[in-house]
Amino acid sequence: MLDTTGRWCAERQRENLWYLAGTTGGEVVDRTCAVPVGVPVLFPVVTMFGESADCQEFMDTARGSATLDGAPLTAEPIGATPIGFFGTPGNAFGEAAEDAGDTWSCGLWVRLDPPAPGNHELTIRGEPGTLDFSTGVNYHLRVATPAPTGAV
Known about the structure:
Distance between the termini: 19 Å
Number of strands: 9
Structural class: mainly beta
Number of helices: 1
Strand content: over 45%
């Protein structure tokens, strides 16, 4: 989430789903990312984490959009979902082991079928509605074979 260039795009990816990170809000970030051919892509438009009860208000006001090569994509609402997180160096939400915990998350998400080989422009914008910030990422995607190094 703190990557401003896409340098870490291939880190800890799975072979069957490519995850593109959102941001913590503020300035729009431009990232360049290589994605392997034939792999679906998942990314958040806007999300929050906290108490389960907070998700309903968040989901009532959350707005966002995503386009791939100028064509609009459909964002799916995902309601209150229990998640666990772990502190690790470089983690935006906690770097120490004691920063681990369980919480709730909700938001608007997009799952793309595997993009065609070639270069693509992905634009993501989100607004949580009740909170005073916005999220935005411009991804310059290069879909090619073989898979970028760092995939797991």
